[in-house]
Amino acid sequence: MLSGGPHRTLAMHFGRSVVHETGLHGVRLRLDEIVTLWHASGNRDERGFARPGEFDLGRAPNKHLAFGYGPHFCVGSYLAKVEIAELLLALRDFTTGFEQTDEALRIRSNFLTGFSTLPVRFGPITVG
Fold first, then answer.
1. What is the spatial distance between Cα 125 and Cα 113, in angstroms, rounded to a whole number?
2. Structure pTM?
3. Is the pLDDT of residue 20 over 50?
């Protein structure tokens, strides 16, 4: 079956340059240093989520980083959310279930996470 854990995000990390010296959690950040935001870690931050390692569809508040944050928020996020909602409705309305039929293969990347293949079989709804 699929592995990897809950509350996953497509982009694993982003690097940014420090524009003015500051401190963060006791670490001094100097001008022009590169800092990296690890989305996968942020989505499981125990300071932000009561049970960070659990898959919880009702997690609230859910300040998830899958689509970025602030000025770097993904403009396509609204379309992606509609597509996911429609997919889930279609699975509910037009199948009796589905099963994974072969190994899921992850993409090979140190920047993005996801699958290159995910073979599944859908059970049809019987009409009549």
1. 33
2. 0.57
3. yes
